[in-house]
Task: structure prediction
Amino acid sequence: MSRLQQALLAAVAVVLLLLASLHFVVVRVHERGPDGMKIWLPLPIELAQAALWFVPDYEKHFDTDTVQIERFSPLAQALLEALEEIDKVELVRVNEGDQTVVVRKAGADIEINVRTDRKEVKVRLAMRTLQGLVDSFDEGRFDAAGAMSALKYSSGLVVHVDEPDTEVSLTIW
Amino acid sequence: MKKRFSLHAAVAASLCLAALPAAAQETKPWIHVHVTESGDSPKNIRVNLPLSVVGVALEVAPEKIVEKGRVRLNNADISIADMRRLWAALRDSGDSEFVNVDDGGQHVSIVREADLVLIKVDDRKDGKDAQVRVEIPVKVVDALFATEGEEIDIAGALDRLQSERGEIIRVIDGDTNVRIWIDETASSS
Result:
């Protein structure tokens, strides 16, 4: 094997290792029908975080509805703490007409399922991700880098929206 | 030396073992709310939450509704101060009927039975057929009226509820059933 081949092989190995160590958010949009749009977009979380280094501080810490966020942040924190020791529990179930909403804790994840006759939305996020999102709100400001970092604690299918015309999913791996 | 070491180890082990059941028994109260509606468009709601979270929810509720865990009721037909005075006079009277009002097709009674206050409203006025049944433990009523003025102390009532187990409120109002109870299990059935 020539030196050039060895160098190329080493470069490929480094790129593969780098890719393997990254976390990806994969967005998939699938419009049903013959002319339906199909999107498959992998976004490396670490690269997005790195890109934030070049964003001015005032842009990546944006002000939010301070009153609402600061009000509900302690509630979310208290709920996360209380649920830490619980393995499985159904927190909320609402059945109304054709709509069912279920919020449950399953292992280390929180699941939210909303189902109607024509639509189903499933969200599954790790408790640590939710904790990271809660921590990202500091004094009424939302820290985008912190929130992005929190996503790494979740894995697999985190969001799935299934409608008659469209299917959208968000997977982390 | 070796004997002393094994004695210390035995004592330490027994202390650890003794602490185990205490840790296992340390259970936290959960509040369960079931709302069942029948009729044309029925609705069922089930909520299971740690009681500690309800306390925090009170703290974060808008101040217009709850201020420092207290609710101000300005639009009630009877003033809170009057209800508090009535309760103070009646709470030690044992099992008795506090209120019995019969107004045409409407009947309201408030009865104390053991540790419960039972409120019953039967409304058959104007062709209606509504029944309301509310059961509240005496301890909770005590806590609700622990403040002064036109306020009821929800935070205080929640504090009392930490040690309460079993059903705390049941409302049967026509097609709607509401049941609120506390136990030490996370799930409800």
